[in-house]
Specification:
Blueprint lengths: L2 E3 L5 H4 L7 H6 L1 H16 L4 H4 L4 H14 L5 E5 L6 H10 L9 H4 L3 E5 L4 H11 L6 E6 L6 H18 L7 E5 L5 H9 L2 E4 L13 H9 L4 H15 L8 H14 L5 E6 L5 H15 L1 E3 L5 E4 L2 E4 L10 H6 L4 E10 L14 H4 L6 H18 L4 E8 L2 H22 L7 H13 L6 H11 L8
Parallel strand pairs: 2-3, 2-4, 4-5, 5-6, 7-10, 7-11, 11-12
Antiparallel strand pairs: 1-12, 8-9
């Protein structure tokens, strides 16, 4: 099981100004207990849809039924989605399959190549159209959108639907799986009209919490990832977080530390720094979860509060040579969360060479797993020396179960911090405003007044060009 190690965020290591003392924890003990009771109650009453996902056999079974149908003839799976409809898919694939997955032979993969199109960059979409070429006959498109009206996903879908219809004729519908609302919405209507296979975007699960739903499970299972183990890991973490004693819960302690660093210790920047390339995209998933859930202008009572820690991603060891200089000597306004792996999926031994060269001999016959761990501990030490707090989430191995644990850990911690900040952690009004502004600029009916409001921003004032 994954574990949270937080000694290097304490006053014993980084001092009272920047570290957490026993008194700090006790000072929020009642609030943490109330937050834990509130979130646990919401889970028991079925009010937090994400908390039920590890146990939803119906979602799992519907996914596997379509995997059984499509996987045998599928050489390429293209996911059309954005935000929560893409980041979880990318994170699961990066963590649990080789980085070279798309370069392996079909015989070695035993599953399709995976492409997740999470933007509307025109060159990227054109490149994908060109890449697929004759492989359209064996390509499946998984379009993911609850409403079907998100501009980015809708435009991608329209492009590839048209391509499929022109190339494959009436058979095109067999190459689309629509993950959308079960009863209503534009994509649901189109799916029924065209005859697509469908999966459900749960009504009670926001996009950023949806990775363990059919949104994330279909692409994972198509690419031979053990989704049962992924869900079992999340269920294990749910049990560890469910008890009344928040100090015994990894999510409870993580939430308390992050809240204290943000609210009491002057640390509004929260860095996630995996020491594994495979875990790097977990940091992308975390950034959306943390930013959309906790960045809010008003409290639950409607009072302006303007809260939210800023999530940042880094990669060990790569960013020891780019960002750590700032983290170690710049403003002491950051909490860093390391992701550490005890046993990496694969290892390499450094050759026995250059023994006569003092500056290289120490590397002879060493394993890269030892080197990357040493790099992490060295960074941890350097940060502590400079009074910079860090915590570590320790992965025994990178397995589906451990990744499932991680997802649930951060989701539950997000709910707890939302309680502590007295905000709605499940809406995203600023995102919705941006969506409406996009509709207006693209000429959607009903948004003419907003289009007029936006014109001063759309028009370039040349006096400000240099």
């Amino acid at each position: 099981m994954i574990q949270l190690y937080w000694k290097n965020a304490t006053d014993k290591v980084v001092g009272a100004d920047h570290g957490i003392a026993a008194g700090d924890l006790s000072s929020i003990g009642d609030r943490m207990a109330a937050a834990q009771q509130a979130v646990a109650g919401q889970v028991l009453r079925g009010e937090l849809g994400y908390a039920a996902l590890p146990h939803r056999r119906d979602y799992r079974d519907s996914v596997m039924a379509l995997v059984d149908k499509h996987q045998p003839r599928c050489t390429d799976l293209v996911v059309l989605g954005i935000g929560g409809s893409a980041l979880g898919n990318l994170a699961v694939q990066a963590a649990l399959n080789p980085a070279t997955w798309n370069l392996l032979t079909a015989a070695k993969r035993k599953g399709p190549r995976l492409f997740v199109l999470d933007n509307v960059d025109p060159a990227a979409i054109r490149d994908m159209v060109d890449l697929l070429g004759r492989r359209l006959q064996t390509t499946v498109f998984n379009v993911i959108s609850k409403s079907g009206e998100t501009a980015e996903t809708a435009s991608q879908f329209m492009i590839f639907r048209d391509l499929l219809r022109r190339r494959l004729g009436e058979a095109f519908a067999g190459h689309v799986v629509a993950t959308t609302d079960a009863q209503k919405g534009t994509l649901n209507r189109i799916a029924r009209q065209d005859g697509y296979d469908t999966l459900v975007v749960p009504d009670d699960v926001g996009g950023r919490f949806s990775v363990l739903s059919p949104v994330g499970l279909f692409s994972a299972a198509m690419c031979r990832i053990d989704v049962d183990a992924l869900l079992a890991g999340a269920a294990d973490m749910a049990r560890r977080c469910a008890g009344p004693d928040w100090t015994a819960s990894p999510a409870g302690m993580l939430a308390a530390i992050k809240y204290l660093m943000y609210a009491r210790k002057g640390k509004p920047m929260h860095v996630m720094m995996p020491y594994s390339n495979r875990l790097y995209l977990l940091a992308d998933w975390y950034r959306q979860l943390w930013a959309e859930s906790l960045g809010k202008a008003v409290s639950r009572q409607g009072e302006e509060i303007l809260v939210g820690p800023t999530p940042i991603k880094a990669l060990g060891t790569t960013d020891q040579h780019s960002q750590v200089q700032l983290y170690g000597e710049g403003p002491n306004d950051k909490l860093t969360v390391f992701l550490e792996v005890k046993k990496h999926p694969r290892d390499v031994r450094i050759p026995d060479a250059f023994g006569e060269i003092p500056g290289l001999g120490y590397l002879r016959n060493q394993r890269l797993s030892k080197l990357i761990t040493a790099e992490k501990v060295a960074t941890e030490y350097a940060m502590a020396f400079s009074k910079r707090p860090t915590v570590t989430i320790r992965f025994p191995e990178i397995t589906p179960g451990a990744v499932g644990e991680f997802f649930y850990l951060y989701e539950y911690a997000t709910s707890l911090v939302g309680e502590l900040l007295n905000i709605n952690a499940y809406d995203q009004p600023a995102v919705e405003l941006g969506k409406k502004a996009t509709f207006a600029l693209m000429g959607r009916e009903g948004y003419q007044d907003m289009a007029k409001e936006i014109q001063p921003f759309a028009k370039v004032n040349k006096s400000y060009l240099v």
